Amino acid sequence: MQDFVIQECQTISDNFTKLKDLAPQLQKTVEVCINALKMGHKVMFCGNGGSASQSQHLAAELVGRYKKNRPAMAGIALTTDTSILTAVGNDYGFDEIFVRQVQGLGRAGDILIGLSTSGNSSNVIKAFELAKQMQITTVAFVGESGGKMGQMADIALCVPSNKTNNIQEMHLALGHMLCGLIEESLFHE
Question: What pLDDT score was predicted for residue 152?
């Protein structure tokens, strides 16, 4: 058991060390989010399963606070309204749960951050397709291969793993860095 723990810790450590290679993509993501927020736009998040939870977590960091007491920022997780999710899922299909929200809530100049370990979540891909038509910047938090989302996103953060748990760990770390850098830039003292 101890060998397993040691090996898992080493894998996590190695993966997090490799995240520094994504600094240019993260910087660009921070910049587009800051510009959008300054212009009165919003940052929307979406994903399925654990990625849905992380979407909610990151939106909460923007609306609530990450580390600083400051005014709320416009962040929304498209994973939270059970009435919308179930109505759209029932009436139009699960692949439409995010695209319908982007259509109704999104505006040109907004940011859509999609999280997917595979990069091939069809409901997120559909939301990205519409977002591009609506002039909403798309950012993909995906695994190493990037999947279809990585290819189509305006900015792709392809973390260095193909294992779901490790991808999600790195997505959260990148998300925290994103929120921290946005907060620091907009509300520095």
Answer: 98
What span, in angstroms and rounded, lies between the C-alpha atoms of 154 and 36? 14
Residue 44 corresponds to which amino acid? M
| CA angle, residues 71, 73, 78, in degrees to nearest 5 | 145
Strand 75-77 relative to strand 43-47, pairing: parallel
Cα(86)–Cα(53) distance, integer angstroms: 17
* Domain 2-186 falls under CATH 3.40.50.10490: yes
Residues 6+ apart with CB under 8 A from 66: 176, 179, 180, 183
17-72 pLDDT tens trace: 999 999 999 999 999 999 999 999 999 999 999 999 999 999 999 999 999 999 99
- Helix, strand, coil percentages (3-state) for the chain, rounded to 5, are 60, 15, 30
Distances (CA, A) of 134 to 55, 122, 140, 147: 21, 18, 17, 22
Strands (E), the chain: 43-47, 75-77, 111-116, 137-142, 155-158
d(CA 124, CA 121): 5
Number of residues in the chain: 189
Q: What is the C-alpha to C-alpha distance for residues 115 and 91, in angstroms, rounded to an integer? A: 24
Task: Output the furthest CA–CA distance in the chain (Å, rounded).
Answer: 52
Containing H/E element for 166?
A: helix 164-186
